[in-house]
Amino acid sequence: MSTMNGIGTKFLGFGNRNRDGSHYATQWFVVLDLPVLPLRRYRLTVGASTYVPRGTGSQTLTRYVLHEETRLDSREIMRTYLIWWLLGPLVVAGPAALLLWAISGNQSGGFGFWAFFLALSLAWVMGAATAMSNYGRRRHGLPK
After folding, report:
1. Alpha carbons 62 and 46: distance in angstroms, whole number
2. Whose CB among 20, 81, 102, 109 lies 3.0–4.6 Å from 113's, allowing a Cys bridge?
3. What percent of the chain is helix, strand and coil (3-state, nearest 5)?
4. Which sequence spans correspond to the domains of the chain?
5. Can you tell me the distance from the alpha carbon of 116 to that of 54, in angstroms, rounded to the nearest whole number?
6. Could you give the 3-state DSSP secondary structure of residue 6?
């Protein structure tokens, strides 16, 4: 279970925590960290995550204990596609696109204006993506 430059496999679609502390999650093939193809579904327990610096980059390692492989859940697959391919991009990029559309007729903005717009958009994208990730982890009782 790993990705390199956003291409690889990862667990998505974590269900609510079971009484024994386990979750159901689907292993996905991802491109640019976006789910492309569901591979398998497991009942698993999520362990601690460790941040490891690696030269000019870094890596986050998360431990999983796989209990059993289960059937793929079509509702969870459709929900994952909907969230990652439609709702997520709308929440993350929608406000910046709407603001850009609203000011596109203003040609007198200058470099400072566009630099401010770009910085504001990047801050929104990073903040929204982080907030969505943290909300999902808290909602399903996953470790930080």
Report:
1. 8
2. 109
3. 40, 35, 20
4. 1-72, 73-139
5. 32
6. coil
